[in-house]
Design brief:
The complex is a heterodimer of chains A (302) and B (449).
Chain A (H helix, E strand, L loop, with lengths): L19 E2 L2 E2 L3 H29 L21 H8 L5 H32 L5 H10 L5 H14 L7 H8 L4 H12 L3 H9 L4 H12 L1 H17 L2 H6 L8 H6 L10 H11 L1 H20 L4
Antiparallel strand pairs in A: 1-2
Helix pairs in contact in A: 1-13, 2-13, 3-6, 3-7, 3-10, 8-9, 10-14
Chain B lengths: L6 H21 L23 E8 L2 H17 L3 E8 L1 H13 L6 E5 H8 L8 H5 L10 H4 L12 E13 H6 L11 H14 L5 E3 L6 H10 L5 E2 L2 E2 L3 H16 L6 H6 L8 H4 L2 E7 L3 H10 L6 E5 L2 E2 L2 E2 L3 E7 L7 H13 L1 H7 L5 E2 L2 H9 L5 H15 L11 H17 L5 H15 L2
Parallel strand pairs in B: 1-2, 1-3, 5-8
Antiparallel strand pairs in B: 3-12, 4-8, 4-9, 4-12, 4-13, 6-7, 10-11
Helix pairs in contact in B: 1-3, 2-15, 10-19, 18-19
The chains are: A mainly alpha (302), B alpha+beta (449).
Chain lengths: 302, 449
């Protein structure tokens, strides 16, 4: 693959246009800050309102969940949390544990496997590289539903139903073309001179990967980890198909257990557990966000 | 039980179904779909009751609890058997079952419903159950014949033993109806009365309450309307009623909608699918067609609003040919790929006939079809009042000898979807009624069968 052109970012960013109200520009920096923050807060409030509503509704009695669009519960109760956590054959501690195991393994698998695949596509020379790359990108075009049934038959023949293998093993085989593509694009812009320098110092392919590529690719790895975490944590169809035994349920399946389209649903406990289930995502996002910033800061070359 | 699936969910489900069908068709005759083809295996269901079986059903937490309890009773009665259980909510249940079916991996005891049954039966995925009934492995003598027949396929074979019967009913806000002076429709009221009743009630209702939800796009109303007029829904895998009947049906509803007796088409299109969020449970409309067992959750929601309003269900309107209220039965099927048929048959037999099991389950999924159990439950003083009402309306409908509909394969994916869409085009002013009827007949007939 030809060497990617690398242009250092020397352009100064264009200056933000001055805020205006009607025809009068706001001159005072304090006034500008107030206006900007007020606008941002308004947008945030609108975007987060459904989330706040969910949290508020989780403190309302079950049959009052849908009675109001307001946030503050008039009859405050914690019953939804206590009932929700222990409902079903197994409690939510079991579902959280299952979800964490699957998500943790998926994150590790995706980051390691996609990184290795991306390194090969971005830096190594081997026969049919372009064809293989095109095929890999081609898999992005296949809708999930097309491969669903053949995959199910394959895993069923392998006797992998009701194990976490169908959800985890593919992640270790770099099957997520999008993440590979993302990392390839990232590695391509890293300067080759550093590879050459490392080679002179005695590094082989593996050494370059470990000592040069990986440390410089932390932001990309953080992105992949974050997306994998969110996708896997929220995945419902995969566990639905492959983990049907209640003791293997993930959080998403546990939440599904509150809903019954053919009878009575328990919306209060559902919203309470949904509130808890987004906590790991928010936490993971906060952690990886710091990693992203650090990654960019330490790889000052970019 | 009937359910109105959201559009996105429907598309996802439809694409999975389509993919599953493609693969099933491609693998026909191979081991992936079990014993298929002309030389279909039969089994009389007798034999040793031991080993493992997988049992799958749809439902949420409350139903899972009682279902598990019955399965536990079966395990107690048969210590050599272990029943592994799979449950999921309605839509997800079918998504998974379609994939399992294409993988030749259906659960040995699979819960099915009359409306989807023939999607599976027509692909030879299910065992005919008549031999098991004849051999005595499954005793169905307590189930009324009309009800049992709803588990038959187009070929007349029994593919599902119905254990619970749901029905559609007219859910009426009794408090509002009595305030307007129109009252709750009397026994045996007909469609003419129904439409007049709505129009009359509307005059005295508060401004923000409509007499009814828009009804032209609801297959549940249509089925009752067609049957009450003495026509067949389906004949030879095609639509069986004349197009004029549908023109009349939609004309009636359009007149109501245009004169403001129903809410608007926009509101109808936006109605959420959960029973708790339905307009009639929220007090936004006075009457709507709802599954009979929604009475309890809907009243519960009503109570949460502190308006003191009471809901009640009555059978759907009758017509020249009597009642058109059909039963929608849920039951158990045994797939052709099952490797432990004798145990599966014993499980089905246990579920239908065990007194303790029926008491524990307490008609959680439609009224119990076993006539003895039904009487026991109605007589049980501990049964909640709304549940008793649900069972009594079922008894009333069975007493009117409800018509049995054999739903052709593709019913839900083709017929219901096309029907709702066709009416939307009328309600949103894109097509005339005549044109929508013609297009609907063409589309539905092409997709059915």
């Amino acid at each position: 693959m030809s060497r990617a052109t690398y242009t250092p970012a020397t352009r100064t960013p264009p200056r933000a246009p001055r805020l205006r109200f009607g025809r009068t520009p706001v001159r005072s920096p304090l006034g500008r800050a107030v206006v900007r923050h007020a606008m941002l807060l308004t947008v945030i409030a609108i975007m987060l309102y459904p989330l706040f509503w969910m949290v508020g509704a989780s403190f309302r009695p079950n049959n009052e969940v849908f009675t109001t669009l307001g946030i503050w519960p008039s009859n405050f109760t914690l019953d939804n949390y206590t009932e929700g956590w222990t409902s079903g054959q197994f409690s939510f501690s079991r579902y959280f544990l299952n979800s964490l195991v699957i998500t943790g393994l998926s994150v590790v698998g995706n980051v390691v496997a996609c990184m290795l695949a991306a390194y090969a596509f971005a830096r190594l020379d081997f026969p049919f590289k372009r064809v293989l790359f095109a095929i890999m990108l081609g898999t992005l075009l296949l809708p999930y539903h097309v491969t669903l049934v053949p995959q199910y038959i394959m895993f069923s023949e392998l006797q992998w139903i009701n194990t976490i293998l169908p959800l985890v093993i593919p992640k270790f085989l770099a099957t997520d073309a999008f993440f590979i593509f993302l990392m390839v694009q990232f590695i391509r812009v890293l300067p080759r001179e550093m590879d050459d320098a490392a080679r002179i110092d005695g590094c082989g392919y593996w050494g370059i990967f470990r000592r040069i590529i990986v440390p410089l690719s932390l932001p990309a790895m953080g992105t992949v980890a974050m997306f994998t975490f969110i996708f896997t944590w929220n995945d419902f169809l995969g566990p639905l198909l492959y983990l049907s035994r209640p003791d293997m349920w993930t959080v998403a399946q546990g939440l599904n257990n509150f809903v019954d389209a053919t009878g009575q649903s328990a919306f209060g406990p559902l919203l309470a557990m949904a509130t808890l289930s987004i906590a790991p995502i928010v936490g993971f996002f906060l952690v990886t966000q710091r990693l992203l910033v650090e990654g960019i800061a330490t790889s000052g070359l970019k | 039980m009937t359910r109105y699936i959201g559009r996105r969910r429907f598309l996802a489900g439809a694409s999975i179904t389509a993919a599953a069908v493609l693969v099933t068709a491609g693998c026909g005759g191979t081991s992936a779909t079990g014993e298929t083809g002309d030389g279909q295996d039969t089994h009389d269901g007798t034999g040793e009751v031991q080993g493992d079986i997988v049992f799958a059903w749809w439902g949420g937490g409350a139903r899972n609890e009682v279902t598990n309890a019955v399965a536990d009773l079966f395990e107690e009665a048969n210590p050599d058997v272990s029943v592994s259980r799979e449950s999921a909510d309605w839509g997800d249940y079918w998504d998974r079952l379609n994939v399992q079916a294409s993988g030749g991996n259906m659960p040995c005891v699979t819960q099915t419903q009359a409306r989807q049954l023939n999607d599976f039966a027509s692909r030879n995925l299910l065992l005919p159950l008549d031999p098991m009934v004849e051999s005595g492995a499954i005793d169905v003598s307590t189930i009324p014949d009309d009800v049992l027949d709803s588990g038959r396929g187009p070929d007349g074979e029994l593919y599902m033993v119905p254990y619970g019967a749901a029905y559609d009913a007219l859910m009426v806000n009794q408090t509002l109806a009595e305030e307007t002076g129109a009252g709750v429709p009397p026994d045996g009221y007909d469609w003419e009365y129904f439409f007049d009743w709505l129009a009359e009630a509307q005059d005295d209702l508060p401004d923000d309450v409509a007499a009814a939800n828009v009804g032209g796009g609801r297959p549940n109303y249509l089925i009752a309307y067609v049957q009450a007029h003495g026509e067949e829904m389906f004949a030879d895998g095609q639509i069986g009623f004349p197009r004029e009947l549908l023109v009349d049906f939609w004309t009636e509803w359009e007149e109501l909608r245009e004169s403001g007796v129903t809410n608007t088409a926009d509101q109808w299109a936006e109605e959420p699918s959960a029973s708790e969020q339905s307009y009639v449970a929220q007090g936004a409309v006075m009457a709507d067609v709802q599954p009979g067992n929604y009475l309890t959750p809907a009243q519960d929601t009503m109570d949460g609003q502190d308006t003191g309003q009471q809901l009640v269900t009555v059978p759907l309107p009758s017509g020249p040919a009597g009642s058109g209220n059909v039963l929608i039965t849920s039951g158990f099927s045994i797939p052709a790929s099952c490797d432990n048929v004798s145990t599966a048959a014993a499980f089905v037999d246990f579920w239908i006939n065990d007194d303790e099991g029926a008491e524990v389950f307490s008609s959680s999924n439609g009224a119990v079809t076993n006539a003895d159990h039904l009487q026991q439950q109605i007589d049980n003083p501990e049964l909640p009042e709304l549940k008793r009402h649900e069972l009594e309306v079922y008894e009333q409908i069975v007493g009117m000898s409800p018509p049995v509909i054999i739903y052709p394969p593709g019913y839900q994916a083709t017929f219901e979807a096309a029907f709702t869409r066709a009416y939307e085009e009328i309600a949103f002013g894109r097509k005339s009624i005549e044109q929508a009827v013609d297009d609907f007949f063409a589309e539905a007939n092409a997709g059915l069968g």
